[in-house]
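Write out the 3D structure for:
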Amino acid sequence: MLKNKPYEKLIDEEIILRDYLAIDRTKLSNERTFLAYLRTALTFLIAGTTFIKFFDTPILTLLGIMMIPIGILLGTIGVIRFKTINTSLTKSNRDKPI
């Protein structure tokens, strides 16, 4: 999904405390973005189910049927992005002492 790998340059290089803190901030930002993806996906799933279950108009039922796959797609995209960036960050030389 990500074509360029911005964290690859941190592998096999000596990094300083500022770089460790930047990696920590990036990990927290990645988690926050992942939770936003999941929150949005869950909202689409719940709204779609609500439209199908509680409204009898064909337009809202069709809208509900369209929202459920969108929610599943958003959740899947969020998981893939989180794992990709998290793997890229984990490959950096985090285990080396300062």
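Residues 11 and 93 are 5 Å apart (CA to CA).
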